[in-house]
Amino acid sequence: MAEFMAEFLAMGGFAGFVWPCYALSLGGMIWLGITSWHRARTAARQLAAMTGQGRTVTED
Amino acid sequence: MFDYLANPTRFMRLADRLLLPLTLLATMLLIAGLYYGLFASPADYQQGDTVRIMYVHVPAAWLASLGYVALGLCGLFYIVWRHPLADVALRAMAPVGAMFAFLTLVTGAFWGKPMWGAWWVWDARLTSMLILFFFYLGVIALANGFDQPERGSRPAALLALVGMINVPIVKFSVDWWNTLHQPASLIRSGGVSIDPAMLTPLLLMIGGIHCYFAVIVILRMKAILTERRIVTVQLRQAAGAPPSEGGAA
User: Fold this and answer.
1) Where are the domains positioned within chain B?
2) Quick check: B230 and A18 CB within 8 A?
3) How confident is the model over B92-107, as pLDDT tens digits?
4) Quick one: pLDDT at residue A56?
5) Do B200 and B32 meet the contact criterion of CB atoms below 8 Å apart?
6) What is the pLDDT of residues B66-86, one digit of tens each?
7) Residue B119 Cα distances to B30, B106, B125, B175, angstroms
8) Which of A18, B56, B62, B86 could make an SS bond with A25 (beta carbons 3.0 to 4.6 A apart)?
9) Mapping DSSP to helix (H, G, I), strand (E, B) and coil, where does residue B118 land?
10) Distance from CA of A45 to the nearest CA of B (A)
11) pTM value?
12) Closest CA to B41 of B56, B51, B26
């Protein structure tokens, strides 16, 4: 198992090229997802507080 | 359909219905794509394991190009029909498309170094993709560069529309000029030239990333519409009227 993992992580000697691509892509997608969701939730909460309707984006 | 969606309240209702299924679909497709791409697909006989960069590079490039087509259409809808949601969609899409154009350039550089021996070459495909990224940045800058956001809507829509001329250049650059970049493998006259073992993860990742794009754009459109309602409510409150959520966005 350890041998398989070491071989897998080494990516045939190209680990320094393959893994940064996956890390950047997935990291960027997760970051954009979290910031977009947070912005929508913050706005919905602010509107709910102003109008007194008590609904948020997570409850829609 | 477009008239139906012109009402922001109706759009919000539809967006709420679509958000969860699209999020689940994007998650499932991306997990399956990553599994097949990293574990179940073989290394290339020439490129070795660097071919696995394709499973993030190609979907990002497709999204950057198709996202710009969507951006240009939003610009057209805003300029010609003054569709109220076109400006909102344009503002929501531009940063997402810019991120994927950036990822295309960076992952391409990481793929180019071991294969071509260079991080960057002024090749037709790479240069046209860089220009596409600059168009995205220009649209973002114009949309957000004014004290009153609505003043930036028309110039941003115009630039989005003008930039569409670059999309076919990105697509056909590998056919029109001699380039280091490999020619098209999926959409080409002779049919798909990728082995099914590599085509499966590639299509899964393309599908997953496009569903992800839809989810993020919907979330950002909801945020922008809600922020506009907040401004409307603040103006009403300042004018002494009772607060109401039903204001125009």
Assistant:
1) 16-238
2) no
3) 999 999 999 999 999 9
4) 47
5) no
6) 999 999 999 999 999 888 899
7) 27, 9, 14, 22
8) B56
9) coil
10) 10
11) 0.90
12) B51
